[in-house]
Amino acid sequence: MKKILYSGTFDPLTRGHLDIIERGSRIADELVVGIIRNPNKVPVFSLEDRKKMIESVTAHLPNVRIDIFEGLLADYAKQNGIDAILRGLRCTVDFEYEIQMAQINCKLKKDLETVFLMTDEKYSFISSSMVREIYSLGGEVDDLVPQQVSDYMEALKLKEEEK
Ligand code: COA
């Protein structure tokens, strides 16, 4: 039984993230999407909202589970019987950072493998911060995030405007 962890801030989840989750779920027996409480980032969307958005887009994937955690990835892996970390690679710049992370995680938890999937070229230019910027300036994000996420973001904006 291979349990794989795909973690990130997901502020918000993009079409690129969903592509990695769907492909990862075909490799893993169980794929845990770990939303990290990252002290270095000030998120726009609450953890609860991010979790709901991810739940709505992964409802069709029975072996995908969502969790929230803080601290070291390697510690979460130790405590939760994770066999491998899944990461998406978008470009060569990602590679330099990712190789360092993979090696550090392997030092922190022996035999913790990192598995990489190449991001589909359709999504190679997407990042959550780009989505946040377009959203905050009133632009269209439908091509960048799954429909359910776009609807959720729109509903949040309306709620904000009503206040
Ligand atoms: N498609 C679209 N966007 C993608 C993507 C993909 N396939 N892969 C990454 N991205 C985007 C993310 O949305 C994020 O965008 P943003 O910075 O504009 O918001 C950016 O690329 C960076 O993603 P990522 O590297 O996954 O950062 P993260 O903050 O989402 O998550 C962790 C990084 C969780 C993996 C890392 O911080 C971590 O492991 N933290 C725990 C502490 C730890 O153990 N550290 C290791 C020892 S130092």
Question: What can you tell me about this protein's structure?
Answer:
With 163 residues, this protein is of the alpha/beta class. It has a single domain (3-162), classed as HUPs (Rossmann fold). Helix content is 45%, strand content 19%. It has helices spanning 15-27, 47-58, 73-79, 92-108, 128-136, 147-162; strands at 3-8, 30-36, 64-69, 84-89, 113-118. Strands 3-2-1-4-5 form a five-stranded parallel beta sheet, with helices on both faces. Strand 4 (84-89), helix 4 (92-108) and strand 5 (113-118) form a beta-alpha-beta unit. The longest helix is centred in the middle third of the chain and has 17 residues, at 92-108. The chain starts with a strand and ends with a helix. Bound molecules: coenzyme A (COA).
Strand content: 15-25%
In CATH's first tier, which class applies? Alpha Beta
Taken together, the total number of domains comes to 1
Mean pLDDT across all amino acids: 95
Low-confidence stretches: none
Question: Total helix count?
Answer: 6
The name of the CATH topology is Rossmann fold
CATH superfamily: HUPs
Q: What is the share of helical residues?
A: 40-55%
Estimated radius of gyration: 16 Å
| Large-scale geometry | globular
Beginning-to-end CA distance, first to last residue: 48 Å
Describe the main β-sheet briefly. Answer: 5 strands, parallel
Hetero ligands: coenzyme A
Strand order of the biggest β-sheet: 3-2-1-4-5
CATH architecture: 3-Layer(aba) Sandwich
* Order of secondary-structure elements: EHEHEHEHEHH
Instruction: Please provide the count of β strands.
Output: 5
